[in-house]
Amino acid sequence: MTESTAQGAGIAPENACPIAPVVDIVFSRWTTPVLWTLNEYGRQRFVELERRIATITPKVLTQRLRQLERDGLVVRTYHAEVPPRVEYEISELGRSLAPLFATLADWSPNLDRVEQARRAYDARTGGR
């Protein structure tokens, strides 16, 4: 059933594709690198995350961490020291995504085949 058919039939997109809400949460821009980094390297300070995910801006990292904390996927711990220290770690709920990340990592060698398919398609269609 296509999206337009689903909408025409009055079926909410999440019912037409029950994994759509999961994809929206887990695979929104920057979520996967943040969760993967916290899962892979453990508790991190903001600066450590920023260094490990070199292409993310501080503003976007702050926004993403807040959203992940709100979603229950990341735990923020504030240490009232001088200077104050804040650490982020993946929550148990976030850790439950580890098998998904492992499966995606196992699939990643197929990216070469995707690139080959793209080149073949572009050659056939003139890149359109």
Automatic annotation (TrEMBL):
It holds the Pfam family HxlR. The keyword Transcription applies. Residues 17-116 form the HTH hxlR-type domain. Keywords: DNA-binding, Transcription, Transcription regulation. The keyword Transcription applies. GO terms for molecular function: DNA binding. PROSITE patterns: HTH_HXLR (PS51118). PANTHER family: TRANSCRIPTIONAL REGULATOR, MARR FAMILY (PTHR33204). This is HxlR family transcriptional regulator.
